[in-house]
Write a structure and sequence with these properties.
It is built from one helix and two strands. The chain has 130 residues and is mainly alpha-helical. The longest helix has 53 residues.
Length: 130
């Protein structure tokens, strides 16, 4: 007795090559923490650095000398002041227009309400004379 066999034709299937995805992983430079028992080596001498000049002072005769802030502080304060004045100058007319229109609108509503109230008083039966 013979075992039946099946011949299956081999068909080559073309497949698409999909490349593996690549990602840029964020990284950071690790922070190095010095040991807690860090000491300077023997024989090392401290390096002397030039001391910064003292801040300028404003001298007014009846008052004690007043130190003047650094340039960075003065520039920041001046920029903030100019910005605040500019914003107020630009916004003031806009706010005034809104205020006028809102007052006019509300006054119209109040007048309308007063007229309706007056009409109701005049048309009510108790106000009519017999």
């Amino acid at each position: 007795m013979e075992i039946p066999t099946i011949d299956i034709p081999v068909v080559e299937i073309n497949t698409v090559d999909i490349p593996l995805p690549k990602a840029e992983v964020p990284y950071y430079v690790p922070m190095v923490v010095p040991p807690s028992d860090l000491r300077e080596p023997e024989g090392a001498k401290p390096v002397k650095t030039a001391e910064p000049p003292p801040p300028p002072k404003l001298n007014l005769p009846p008052l004690p000398p007043i130190p003047i802030p650094s340039t960075e502080v003065l520039v920041t304060a001046a920029a903030a002041a100019v910005t605040a004045v500019a914003a107020t100058t630009v916004a003031q007319p806009i706010i005034e227009q809104i205020k006028k229109r809102l007052q006019k609108f509300l006054q119209g509503k109040i007048n309308k309400w007063k007229q309706n109230r007056q009409k109701r008083k005049e048309s009510s039966p108790s106000s009519k004379k017999m």
